[in-house]
Structure formats: structure tokens, C-alpha cells
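Private note to self, pasted from the team thread so I don't lose it. C-alpha cells:
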């Protein structure tokens, strides 16, 4: 296998990571109550940059069901897109953005930051390597061709 194939392996692994994040959630609770959002708001309360904590709370606190659904659907869509290679550049960019948001919110929890940083690095590397050009629905459908 060459370098591109190995980047595709990383793309698929990143997608499986998102699918696992989706799978391990209590989906009924996230969908009906936005259960993880309360925890995120409590993290925002102690954020070392008060402006970030306030901005997060003002956006999310009163909309837990909406944002719980956004998180669940985003993780599922990213996982499916990356594993299948469908709209891969969009899924890779979305993965990097979502991990960056998680990173900024959980800035004090360095145990989680390694995972977020690694997922961002994989997404950026896969974008640079154009990891949708083989082993993907994008390549089969002729999406994102360079020629």
C-alpha cells in the first residue's frame, strides 16, 4: 500500500471513531432531553475564558434538545460520510470543526484533548492527501475530481 491508501485507512478509522461516539450515547436521552448538554453547560460555567463560557451558555443552555439532536446527527453523519467516502471533504472539514469546538469547550480536560487533537490532525492530513480519491463513493461517483 502507498501513502494515499494509508491516509484512506486513517479516514475510515476516523469515521469509525465518530460512529462509536454515536453508538455509545444513550440516544433516547440525547434525542428527547439533550442529556449531554447540561454537562457541557456546567463545563462552560468554569471555562478559563469567561467570554467563551458565556457565549456557549447563551447559545446552548436554553436549547438542549435542539443541540443534543445536532450532536447526535452530526456524529452519525460524519461517521457514515468518512467510512463510505461520501462527500468526504465536507465530512473531514466537519470533523475538524466539531473537534475544534469540543477542544475549545473542554480546554481544562487534557485527557480528552489528546483525542480531539488527534482527530483534527487526521482530518487535516486526509484533506491534504485528498483521501477521497480512492476507496470512496466520491471516487465512484466522480465527485471532487482534480482533472
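Design output:
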Amino acid at each position: 500500500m502507498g501513502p494515499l491508501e494509508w491516509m484512506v485507512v486513517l479516514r475510515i478509522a476516523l469515521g469509525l471513531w465518530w460512529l462509536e461516539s454515536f453508538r455509545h450515547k444513550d440516544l433516547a436521552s440525547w434525542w428527547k432531553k439533550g442529556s449531554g448538554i447540561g454537562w457541557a453547560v456546567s463545563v462552560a460555567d468554569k471555562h478559563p475564558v469567561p467570554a467563551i463560557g458565556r457565549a456557549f451558555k447563551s447559545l446552548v443552555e436554553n436549547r438542549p434538545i435542539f443541540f443534543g439532536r445536532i450532536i447526535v446527527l452530526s456524529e452519525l453523519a460524519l461517521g457514515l460520510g468518512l467510512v463510505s467516502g461520501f462527500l468526504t471533504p465536507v465530512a473531514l472539514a466537519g470533523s475538524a470543526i466539531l473537534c475544534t469546538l469540543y477542544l475549545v469547550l473542554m480546554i481544562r480536560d487534557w485527557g480528552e484533548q489528546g483525542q480531539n487533537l488527534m482527530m483534527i490532525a487526521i482530518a487535516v492530513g486526509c484533506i491534504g492527501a485528498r483521501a477521497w480519491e480512492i476507496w470512496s463513493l466520491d471516487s465512484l461517483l466522480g465527485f471532487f475530481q482534480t482533472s
